[in-house]
Amino acid sequence: MSRSALDRFEQKQAQMQAQHSMGYGAPMGIMPMGPGAAYGAVAPLGAVFQQQPQLTGQELEDLEEKRRNEIPLWGNDTTFNMNPLLANRIIESDYFQSLQSMTTYHEVVDEIYHKCKNVEPWSPGTQRLPSTAFCLLTKLLTLRLTTKMMQGMLSHRDSPYIRAIGFLYIRVATEPKNIWNWFEEYIADEEEFAPTADPELKMTIGKWCTKILTDMSYYNTMLPRIPVPVERKIKAYLILFEDEQRRAGDNMTFVSELVSGLEVRAIYGDEDNDPAWYPAVVNEVVPPEEGRSSWPSVVVTFPEYGNQECLPLGKIEIPESITSGGGGSG
To answer: Measured between alpha carbons, how far is 192 from 188 in angstroms, rounded to an integer?
Structure first.
């Protein structure tokens, strides 16, 4: 980026900070980084909230609440772990500059809804102009999303492109060991969309999520490398997912037998514990979400720990007394 372009961008950012007392986050750094930049813990993006105009008590409270719930970014806080050429082209683009007036998450999500037709990194037919999707992704990264905002994006009903840009935010700029926790619920998601500029080349959200988890090559750019130990764990989870899909198909034959109080076995895992089978008791069966899943979910309680979870059907093992035809709910 030229020095004059850099000066113009910094001047615009300074103006925006002065005009919007509730601006979320500091300007994005723009000095180019070498291609060897790797994941690592970084300081927050600039001096957030420095020299802010006087805020009211409620405004300060809202601002502090957002800061507490922001999803931590990880890695290169200059390029957000994108290819340096792509990152600089985004910052220099007229479209990204036009987004400076947007200071809230809701404004950017509305822009995605109206403008995004694919989630390629480059505009169709060129590797010189960054795409609308990646300009908006970068804008969101400068705003710094909270957990609640991200949950809203990933489950959004109005546009699959809002969801896809949320997944790219997680994949590109958050700590690798936490990526699966965000993606797991959506690996089986059946909503279709066209990730490229060709509207005929469609795939499900679930298959696209699997692709960006397992393939660094992404439509003429490179996604950040996932550390090998984390990559191995994600691949193991994906193998388990395939087993769960087969089990869900088998369980559908007996889903009417999953009545409240039935003792089953169910898979549970979290950040501290790898997935494993535990005794569980069925609470209820939840119908599948239209357009996003073929299988119902099952709400169970784990008596040993007392926690209640809503699990995919494939994470339930129905007693052999039912599956072998030896008995049922009566």
So the answer is: 12
